[in-house]
Amino acid sequence: QGFFKRTVQNNKRYTCIESQSCPIDKTQRKRCPYCRFQKCLSVGMKLEAVRADRMRGGRNKFGPMYKRDRALKQQKKAIIRATSGPGILKMETSPEQANHHLPSLHHHQNLN
């Protein structure tokens, strides 16, 4: 958030020396500020939400929108976790791999 705020407040303009598709993750985020800023925009950060002054805190009209977006992302993650638990096999799994993950029927029959 600090990088985004400084970029907007100082009206910085970056250029990418690659093909404008640099990988941005925690380890490589400082290599290309252009692609980093573009990623900020692509994940929904709003230029209008940055204060022009240096005042901290307070409320703005974007707070509820960000909260709603966070809630939707959390709901999606919960659905994905619920539908891809350990009992569900991935589509890429071959029948041989699936049999390896399923409990052996012979083992359960011998217990009776």
UniProtKB/TrEMBL annotation:
Q: Which PROSITE patterns match?
A: NUCLEAR_REC_DBD_2
Cite the InterPro entries for this sequence.
Answer: NR5-like (IPR016355), Znf_hrmn_rcpt (IPR001628), Znf_NHR/GATA (IPR013088)
Q: Where in the cell is it found?
A: Nucleus
Q: Does the keyword Nucleus apply?
A: yes
Transcription regulation as UniProt keyword: yes
Matches recorded under SMART domains = ZnF_C4
Looking up SUPFAM superfamilies in the UniProt record yields:
Glucocorticoid receptor-like (DNA-binding domain) (SSF57716)
Start and end residues of each stretch annotated as Disordered: 84-112
Q: Which GO terms describe its cellular component?
A: RNA polymerase II transcription regulator complex
Biased amino acid composition, Basic residues: 103-112
Q: Provide the GO MF annotations for this entry.
A: nuclear receptor activity; RNA polymerase II cis-regulatory region sequence-specific DNA binding; zinc ion binding
Q: Which domain of life is it from?
A: Eukaryota
For biological process, the GO terms are: hormone-mediated signaling pathway; tissue development
Swiss-Prot/TrEMBL keywords: DNA-binding, Metal-binding, Nucleus, Receptor, Transcription, Transcription regulation, Zinc, Zinc-finger
- The protein's predominant localisation is nucleus
Nuclear receptor domain boundaries: 1-52
Write down what this protein is called.
Answer: Nuclear receptor domain-containing protein
